[in-house]
Design brief:
By secondary structure, the protein is an all-alpha fold. The chain is built from 19 helices and no strands. The protein folds into two domains: 285 residues, no CATH class; 185 residues, no CATH class. The radius of gyration is 23 Å and the shape is globular.
């Protein structure tokens, strides 16, 4: 079990290293562009980003999920070759069809997404970039499925560096404003798609095996409505803020989301490692449910601490780093947006089991339930609490999704979680975040910092006490402690001799 945890942690650290470098770079760019792009510009870019996510879900038709499963379970190179070829060509054909339709109806889509038909040409260029992005995602998924985390992280990071440098040139040098990021991303999407697809097809060949396509499509297609609904669950908060409060408020919401990145990058890194790794655990472990339970509790202990830290220190960093006061209301939204990021990770962990079977059709109900709850609650909470209400609505939707997918997953593999410890961790973290939110209204800087430090140090102590009070977790902690002590003794033996 310790070996499995170390392997998962190792993959997560590699994914996380590339992710954190990318997030830090993105954060620096945010501070740099805060004086060059208006909140309305950020709102438009954020809304278009969600359109891109919807495009990828449509064009892939569930092939992303099928690649993970088929590649991980394939026993021969021939089978893997068929999986890769099928996914690449399927996504390419689907992407061209959907992008062509989107370009024809670009004015209507621009009005729907950004509330401004004048962005029609921007939408057309974005659709063209989406084709390359969707196709290049398949080779990257193959790297994940093969657990080649170092090449995966390196490619992502190099792409980020080149895209960022080009964006700076377009915005600062050429004064292209909101067009800069779109053109920069599109340019490097095409370059990397060409390189990645050529590399994969050279390794696996060009043959398309239609029986493989049918099997993958049958398995993966039920994930398409699920992924579309998942995008809707993610995007509806920003969209509802834009609809009810204006695109400028949506931009402020997006800036707040950037300050929730410390939690987001950890969730993303572990999720990227967890998706392929769970199949390996299920395939090789005699008691996978026991390992899934341990990993889930440990994951919650770690990520809730990051949620507390993000909610407490994110607002302070925002106020210090961005001097334009029109962005400062974002400080009050960071904690609730970080909660939404946390719930995405919770959903991934408690959903373990649903994807291990052959029938994924019920999964569409998961996102539908979350969307209905999130959308319905947003009409009540946004007028009441503004952008904070939108983030809380997203969290409620993710919570409902977690409850539903947990029930579906339990039908595939029953996992007996440590519910008393999990509940106590949830209550303790929520209490610390609420206290941190109340501290924001204190005008004295040093008084705020003193309370923030106390909360930051107090929460991990609470978690240790909670885990120590749990018999199951206490045994796990004792086993881990004994293992560490044994390793230390073993290292000392040569020096003693």
């Amino acid at each position: 079990m310790i070996k499995r945890l170390k392997e998962l942690l190792g993959d997560s650290l590699v994914y996380g290293l590339g992710s954190v470098l990318e997030k830090v770079g993105g954060f620096i760019l945010l501070l740099f562009f805060a004086n060059l792009l208006t909140p309305s510009d950020y709102g438009v870019l954020g809304l278009l980003a969600y359109m891109d996510m919807a495009f990828e879900a449509l064009s892939s038709s569930g092939m992303r999920s099928a690649v993970f499963r088929e590649f991980a379970l394939a026993d021969t190179l021939e089978t893997k070759r068929r999986v890769v070829n099928t996914a690449i060509w399927g996504v390419l054909i689907g992407g061209v069809i959907i992008a062509s339709i989107g370009m024809v109806f670009a004015p209507e889509i621009a009005e729907l997404v950004t509330q401004n038909r004048g962005y029609a040409n921007l939408v057309r260029v974005d659709f063209a970039a989406c084709i390359a992005s969707a196709v290049s995602a398949i080779p990257m998924l193959v790297l994940q499925a093969a657990r080649r985390s170092v090449p995966f992280a390196s490619i992502n990071f190099s792409k980020f560096v080149l895209t960022s440098a080009t964006t700076v040139f377009f915005i600062v040098g050429l004064k292209w404003g909101v067009w800069g990021p779109i053109l920069s991303v599109g340019l490097w999407n095409v370059v990397y798609a060409t390189f990645l697809v050529a590399s994969q097809l050279r390794e696996f060949g060009f043959e398309i095996h239609w029986p493989t396509w049918k099997r993958m499509f049958t398995y993966g297609f039920p994930f398409m409505p699920y992924r579309l609904l998942a995008v809707a669950n993610t995007a509806f908060s920003t969209y509802m803020v834009a609809s009810l409060m204006g695109v400028r408020s949506a931009g402020i919401y997006q800036v707040a989301a950037r300050f929730a990145l410390p939690l987001g990058f950890v969730v993303d890194a572990i999720t990227q490692a967890w998706w392929p790794y769970k199949f390996r655990i299920y395939k090789e472990e005699k008691d996978p449910a026991n390992l899934f339970r341990t990993i889930t509790t440990s994951y919650l202990a770690m990520t809730t601490y990051l949620w507390v830290g993000t909610a407490i220190w994110g607002p302070e960093v925002l106020r210090f780093a961005i001097h334009r006061v029109e962005y400062h209301p974002a400080a009050y939204v960071i904690g609730s947006i970080a909660l939404a990021r946390l719930m995405i990770g919770v959903y991934q962990m408690f959903g373990t089991g649903i994807e291990l079977g052959d029938n994924a059709k019920p999964i569409a109900l998961v996102s539908l339930a979350g969307l209905l709850v999130g959308l319905g609650s947003s009409f009540a909470l946004i007028p009441l609490w503004g952008a904070t209400g939108a983030a809380i609505s997203a969290s409620l939707g993710a919570f409902v999704m977690t409850v539903v997918i947990f029930q579906l997953g339990q039908a595939r593999i029953r996992i007996h979680h440590d519910w008393p410890a999990i509940t106590a961790i949830a209550i303790a973290s929520a209490s610390c975040v609420f206290a941190g939110h109340e501290v924001l209204s204190i005008t004295s800087f040093w008084r705020r910092i003193l309370i923030d430090v106390a909360l930051s140090l107090g929460y991990p102590l609470l978690v240790v006490l909670i885990l120590a009070a749990s018999r199951t977790q206490r045994e796990r902690m004792r086993a881990l402690y004994d293992r560490v002590q044994a390793i230390r003794r073993k290292r000392r033996e040569p020096s003693v001799a």
